[in-house]
Amino acid sequence: MEKKLVLFLDFDGVLHPDATYLVRGRPILRADGHLFMWADRLVALIADYPDVDIVLSTSWVRDLGFARARAYLPVELQRRVVGATWHSAMGRNADGFKKTSTWWDDVSRYEQIKRWADRAEVHNWIAVDDQPSGWRNLELSKLVQTDGATGLSESKIVGDLNKLLQGSTL
Questions:
Q1: Could you report the per-residue pLDDT of 31-78, keeping only the tens digit for each?
Q2: Where are the domains of the chain?
Q3: CATH 3.40.50 fits 5-168, yes or no
Q4: What CA–CA distance (Å, rounded) separates 101 from 127?
Q5: Are 35 and 72 in contact (CB under 8 A)?
Q6: What is the C-alpha to C-alpha distance for residues 103 and 4, in angstroms, rounded to an integer?
Q7: Which Pfam families match (predicted)?
């Protein structure tokens, strides 16, 4: 088994409620609480797993850019980020002009993740996301599905993620 584990991380519905909107180019949470209000739970959980890398699997990267999206995370998580399922090159056509719609916009979160994992030849991966649609039954065991309103605030979800981490980093 590979020692390194890649954790595909969504933001909305995982690290804070899925009620985030861009207003004048800035993300605003339109729900009780604040952006990244549950990120510390993930920081604490993966502290015991030094071989876990993070790949951002969130529309924040498409909307804000990789560096800016990553910068919203606590430093402990930023240090682990090795990439994202979205790359700015996906948003441009062969002539360099911006596309209005891309492959990435038209596929499920699972397909975005699977494409990244296949291209990087990563087999040891898991995902935390509130979007279960499009997941292949054979790989549902790699998904920790959160409720978009409660994300990582639920102890059961954190426990499920911990079990996956334990099983994937042996």
A1: 999 999 999 999 999 999 999 999 999 999 988 999 999 999 999 999
A2: 5-168
A3: yes
A4: 25
A5: yes
A6: 28
A7: HAD_SAK_2 (PF18143)
DSSP at 24 = T
Please give the C-alpha separations between residue 71 and each of 80, 106, 138, 160, in angstroms, as whole numbers.
12, 26, 34, 27
DSSP run (H or E) holding 46? helix 39-46
74: number of Cβ within 10 Å: 13
The alpha carbon dihedral of 66, 28, 146, 47 has a sign of positive
Q: Which amino acid is at 131?
A: Q
Please answer whether residues 89 and 62 qualify as being in contact, where contact means their C-beta atoms are separated by less than 8 angstroms: no
Directed axis angle between helix 39-46 and helix 155-168, to 10°? Answer: 30
What's the pLDDT tens digit per position in 126-162? 999 999 889 988 889 999 999 999 999 999 999 999 9
Better-scored residue on pLDDT, 1 or 63? 63
- pTM given for the model: 0.89
Of 72, 73, 83, the residue nearest 41 (C-alpha): 73
